Amino acid sequence: MLDASWGELAWLAFAVIAAGVLTGILAGVFGVGGGGVVVPVLLEIFRILAVPDGVRMQLCIGTSLAVIGPTAWRSYRAHQARGMVIAGVIRIWTLPTFVGVAAGAVIAAFAPGGVLKIAFMVIAGTIAARLLFGGDRWRLSDDLPGRAGMVGYGFFIGLGSALMGISGGSLATMVLTLHGKPIHNAVATAAGIGVPISIAGTIGYALAGLPHQAELPPLSIGFVSVIGLVAIAPVSSIVSPLGARIAHALPRRWLEIGFALFLLTVASRLVASLFV
Fold first, then answer.
1. Within 10 A of 136 (CB to CB), how many other CB atoms are there?
2. Is 1 part of a structural domain of the chain?
3. Neighbours of 107 (CB within 10 A)
4. What total of structural domains would you count in the chain?
5. Which domain holds residue 123?
6. pLDDT in tens, 59-87
7. Burial grade of 99 (CB within 10 A; 0-12, 13-18, 19 or more)
8. Which among 28, 74, 99, 216 is least buried, having the fewest CB atoms inside 10 angstroms?
């Protein structure tokens, strides 16, 4: 299964460590779990390990969701200590995001990898456009909707997270800012919702991948690679509080522009991968 030189393996090891550091910083700065970084890195690693195309993207997404759990928790706690988390939003969103993630995991078990990449690109591009060009003009209201609307948003965030391999931070931040919440509060709250999404996503992808176990690399539990989890999660969770401190020191507009450029970079990388 392994078809790589020692030089390639050394670069991959460096990429894994760098991905862990960058994932942790992004988790703190933007309230995201860092799946946008982890998924492309894992795609390259599993390509070298000759994981079949039909299950490679699913394995990357499932592993990414497992990785971002500890990272999201550390980031959330760092933001919570500063009093920036909107606790009521997390309470309302927890259950519907679980349901949305479960639905996304079922879809991922049957959808081709290219479909998941396209879903990732469309959602990421929409969020980035809103942050770069929408400003306060792209606002649905000055306050959050009622309970039914919030439940619907929670399901959408969970579904999108499962299809993209992210903690839902990107989607949650977009929803909250569209309803008048400041970017710093949105980022802090988005970090919190990433914890239940990660748990549900990890379980869902592990179960969805069990029928494909023969095609997956060693030490995989369904569509979750234990090796990928152990390699990236410890580094990212240690670094994430640093990212939270950076976020609270940045002006609002800088945070919005940085988040948008991050999303566009990830989307561009996935566009290129469709033609490779």
1. 7
2. no
3. 16
4. 1
5. 6-273
6. 888 888 888 777 777 777 777 787 888 87
7. middle
8. 99
